[in-house]
Recover the amino acids of this structure.
């Protein structure tokens, strides 16, 4: 096995991609609507519109490309790559990872509860260094079979409520407080 690839679909970047055209309307609408009050010449107004349009176009293209990615497992590391262009987004070497754990993430908010099944790769400082979600991942079972060859598994399943700081590696994983007792 040189490398194993599995295709992923990222719903967070899809939501961002949908929001960018909506957010583009706000500054361009303000600029066009309030331009007479700012005493801007026609040339300056056109220049600002070109800059705003270029910025939002680049943001839209980048976020669209981030929707589709691959998780790649090699002998050395696990990494996420963009589908096009094939650029590494994040990479962790096996020697940096202590083990991986099955985690149920529960996000509660104004519009209800969202439950996400994920795999957390935890480093030697007990912080999450790499995260995979089961949603949007094709061949996830084969992926876990390949990961089992390289990494140990934390046997107790964890459950976290609103783990924003933990999944970004800003807070250590609390094993005792967040384990699921069966």
């Amino acid at each position: 096995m040189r490398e194993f690839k599995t295709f992923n679909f990222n719903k967070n970047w899809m939501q961002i991609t949908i929001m960018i055209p909506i957010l583009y309307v706000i500054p361009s609408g303000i600029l066009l609507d309030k331009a007479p009050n700012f005493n801007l010449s026609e040339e300056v107004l056109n220049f600002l519109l070109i800059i705003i349009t270029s910025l939002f176009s680049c943001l839209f293209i980048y976020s669209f490309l981030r929707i589709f990615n691959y998780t790649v497992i090699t002998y050395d590391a696990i990494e996420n790559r963009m589908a096009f262009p094939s650029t590494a987004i994040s990479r962790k070497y096996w020697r940096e990872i202590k083990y991986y754990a099955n985690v149920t993430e529960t996000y509660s908010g104004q519009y209800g509860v969202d439950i996400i099944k994920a795999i957390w790769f935890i480093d030697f400082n007990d912080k999450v260094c790499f995260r995979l979600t089961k949603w949007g991942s094709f061949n996830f079972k084969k992926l876990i079979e390949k990961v089992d060859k390289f990494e140990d598994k934390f046997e107790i399943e964890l459950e976290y409520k609103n783990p924003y700081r933990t999944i970004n590696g800003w807070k250590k994983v609390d094993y005792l407080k967040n384990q699921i007792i069966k």
